[in-house]
Amino acid sequence: MKTIFKLTLVMLCALANSGCADTGKVDKSVADNNLALGLLKTVESSTKEAGQIEIRGTYLQASCSAGSCNIPGSNTVSIQSNFGTTTGYLYVDYVNGAGTSTYRVNAEIVEFSNTDRVLYYKPKNSANISALIWTITEAKEILICDVFNGKPTLAETKTDLNSRKASGTVYTTNPKSAGCNGSFAFNFLTRTF
After folding, report:
1. How far apart are CA 149 and CA 132, in angstroms?
2. Cα Rg for the chain, rounded, in angstroms?
3. Alpha carbons 90 and 79: distance in angstroms, whole number
4. Nearest 5 degrees, angle CA 65-CA 179-CA 67?
5. Distance CA 57, CA 45 (A)
6. What is the pTM of this model?
7. Which tens digits make up the pLDDT trace of 81-99?
8. Which residues 6+ apart lie within 8 Å of 189 measured at CB?
9. Cβ 189 vs Cβ 58: under 8 Å
């Protein structure tokens, strides 16, 4: 009897061990499906990340003139886009020599295009939409121009910007000297981090 009891006990232990070995395991088809879903989510996130505005971030701003730019001071520009959309926000804080704000822009980006390097924004206290264009030099310097062309609709603002580009009032060929609203130079941005 002892032998049968021992044999039964050994078989029960072996069965228990084999059952424990499978605890927490996932069927291969379920694991493959989870892996495929994870990879799809990664591709989706990468696509959305790639669609973010090219110049997103917080910068110190400096003016440019006659081909050179000043050292950035206390003026800040923050540009962010909403994940997976062509919208976002623009916040600008111009500070005078005394260190106090003299002009602020708190605006919603209603649309942007990295291809055209333009964003259209609507300040919180305005009904009009304006354009801001940017260029990136070969030295990877970011230069911006606020076109200040506020119009009641996005379509009107786009038409106005295209008209200004066609007439040569706005261009990006020599941004440190001119091209922003006539003979004005663009502003130079330096990332704050």
Report:
1. 9
2. 29
3. 5
4. 30
5. 19
6. 0.73
7. 998 888 999 999 988 767 7
8. 55, 59, 60, 61, 72, 77, 141, 142, 143, 144
9. no
